[in-house]
Amino acid sequence: MVSIFLRSLIYNVLFYLMLVFWVMVGIPTYLMPRSGILTVARYWARSSIWLMRVVCNTKVEYRGLEKIPHGPLIVASKHQSMWETFALLQFFDQPLFIFKRELKWIPLFGWYLIKANMIGVDRRAGGRSLLAMARRAGEEVRRGRQLIIFPEGTRAAVDAPPNYKTGIAQIYADCGVTCLPVALNSGLFWPRRTFMRYPGTLVVEFLDPLPPGLSRREFIVRVSAVIEDATNRLVEAARREQAQLFGRVPGSASAKA
């Protein structure tokens, strides 16, 4: 366990140093088209994933890449960790994220969000702000972008009950495009609210796309069912692997005893 602690500490220090490096590399992209900063962001994502493999022995397996459609798309992903907020963007040529408006005030990093034409939302503004966000998201997707969204709205612990928000159904209805569900088990390797990083095989699985035109109710039922079923399967497989590595699952009751 001491070794995992030290590896986690080393990774986090290097991760943020690498982030600073890529932020500085990206400065010239202010004078370039949006594709410039998106290219830098992909290199940041790939280098961070590589670093996690080298330092923490966390391998990553991607399944179902052949199921990713081209063109305008909604990507609805399970959200267990910070990891997927940067890892998923590498698979799409025009990724679009919705972020808390306060992030745009972070020097350089926030300016990159604006340059990349991401969508900031003021959660305190209530329903009117959310409707404006949904309309803008629909406009951007219809222009050919791929909206990467987390239907639960925030990171959830691995065993937390699912809580899918109705906002994604509104966006789906406004966009009128295919939705690609994504399941993963990242919360077992990059848990929220801790700097610990665990070894094993982190799996991202792109599932069968859902066609446009479903009713909002049917969409929510189907997207939540397929994501949760696949996520539960991936989590259980990862826990078996961790049990073999550690004799228990990190963070479980037996680990705390």
Can you walk me through this structure?
The chain has 257 residues and is α/β, with parallel strands linked by helices. It has one domain (59-256). The protein contains eight helices and seven strands. A seven-stranded mixed β-sheet has the order 1-7-6-2-5-3-4, sandwiched between helices. Helix 1 (2-25) packs antiparallel against helix 2 and helix 5 (127-142) packs parallel to helix 6 (167-175). The longest helix is centred in the C-terminal third of the chain and has 31 residues, at 216-246. It is globular, with a radius of gyration of 18 Å. Residues 253-257 have low confidence and may be disordered.
Overview features:
257 residues, alpha/beta, seven-stranded mixed sheet, 8 helices, 7 strands, 46% helix, globular, disordered C terminus
Tell me briefly what this model is.
By secondary structure, this protein is an alpha/beta fold. The protein is built from 8 helices and 7 strands.
Detail the topology: elements first, then pairings.
Elements: H1 2-25, H2 34-56, E1 58-63, E2 73-77, H3 83-87, E3 95-100, H4 109-115, E4 119-121, H5 127-142, E5 146-149, H6 167-175, E6 179-184, E7 200-206, H7 216-246, H8 253-256
Parallel strand pairs: 1-7, 2-5, 2-6, 3-4, 3-5
Antiparallel strand pairs: 6-7
Structure summary, number of beta strands: 7
* Span of the ends, CA to CA: 14 Å
Low-confidence stretches: 253-257
User: How many domain modules?
Assistant: 1
Q: Number of DSSP helices?
A: 8
Which shape, going by the Cα principal axes? globular
* Multimeric organization: single chain
Class per helix and strand makeup: alpha/beta
**What proportion of the residues is helical, as a percent range?**
40-55%
**Beta-strand percentage?**
5-15%
Order of helices and strands: HHEEHEHEHEHEEHH
Q: Main sheet?
A: 7 strands, mixed
Question: What is the gyration radius calculated from CA atoms?
Answer: 18 Å
Let me know the average pLDDT: 91
Strand order of the largest sheet: 1-7-6-2-5-3-4
